[in-house]
């Protein structure tokens, strides 16, 4: 119990960890609230609780939007450090990653302008800027899926080379990487479905998802993000212990 509390506190103390936890609670509230309002025709108390959860979810989403006002510089630093991906061995992964960084970098100012317009800080219509940010988010997700598929292809090729002989630890590491990429694809596909839902009506399934389905897809993606974050922390701890022994 104490270890779980310590892990939660450690997660909340980091910006990325707190954001992932807020995201999970946000979409989880939307999922439960959507289910309650959907089946609450004969139950007024459940309907009221469902509406409150949906309002709570909207406030958490707004909270994340405000916190992202300060993400531009860190994204710029990451894009600068990656550059044109000279360290990448595969050209396809390199250019997909560069395009992803461009989409992510442009996403933030578009969202900031949309937020400022809604807050009445600037006199522009926010609709087109929310659309731009959604398109950039969807583009980034699609590129991320393509990158993961390419990485999977390369990992499977490496795995075949190790199937004939030894290198058990190497094969185990490759299997973990493959599982990680598969989870990334599942997470990005869930988010991409929501991104399409938030596009203007008439585009594929835009605005056709009920609240509970948006919450389900977002919760799935958020939980995968928490799992991957925890796995990365564990791998880092293991490598630190190994290097010190």
Automatic annotation (TrEMBL):
The UniProt keyword set, sorted, is:
Membrane, Peroxisome, Transmembrane, Transmembrane helix
What species does this protein belong to? Cyprinodon variegatus
Query: GO cellular component annotations, sorted alphabetically?
Result: peroxisomal membrane
**What biological process terms from GO does the record include?**
peroxisome fission
Primary location recorded for the protein, binned into one broad class: membrane
Query: Is the keyword Transcription regulation in the record?
Result: no
* Transmembrane region(s): 129-153
Listed name of the protein: Peroxisomal biogenesis factor 11 gamma
Q: Give the location in the cell.
A: Peroxisome membrane
> Known InterPro entries for this protein?
PEX11, PEX11C_met
* One Pfam family here: PEX11
Question: Transmembrane: present as a keyword of the record?
Answer: yes
């Amino acid at each position: 119990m104490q270890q779980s509390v310590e892990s939660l506190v450690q997660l909340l103390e980091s910006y990325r960890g707190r954001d992932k936890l807020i995201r999970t609670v946000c979409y989880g509230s939307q999922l439960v609230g959507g289910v309650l309002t959907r089946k609450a025709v004969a139950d007024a108390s459940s309907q009221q609780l469902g509406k409150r959860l949906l309002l709570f979810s909207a406030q958490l989403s707004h909270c994340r939007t405000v916190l992202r006002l300060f993400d531009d510089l860190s994204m710029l630093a990451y894009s600068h450090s990656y550059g044109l991906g000279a360290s990448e061995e595969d050209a396809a992964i390199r250019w997909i990653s560069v395009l992803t960084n461009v989409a992510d970098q442009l996403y933030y100012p578009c969202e900031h302008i949309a937020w400022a317009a809604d807050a009445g800080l600037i006199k522009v219509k926010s609709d087109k800027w929310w659309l731009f940010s959604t398109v950039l988010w969807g583009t980034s997700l699609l590129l991320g899926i393509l990158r993961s598929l390419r990485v999977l292809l390369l990992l499977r090729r490496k795995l075949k080379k190790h199937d004939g002989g030894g290198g058990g630890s190497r094969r185990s590491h490759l299997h973990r990487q493959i599982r990680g990429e598969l989870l990334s694809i599942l997470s990005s596909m869930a988010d991409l479905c929501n991104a399409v839902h938030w596009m203007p009506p008439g585009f594929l399934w835009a605005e056709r998802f009920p609240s509970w389905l948006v919450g389900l897809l977002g919760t799935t993606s958020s939980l995968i993000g928490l799992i991957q974050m925890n796995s990365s922390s564990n791998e880092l701890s293991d490598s630190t212990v190994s290097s010190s022994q």
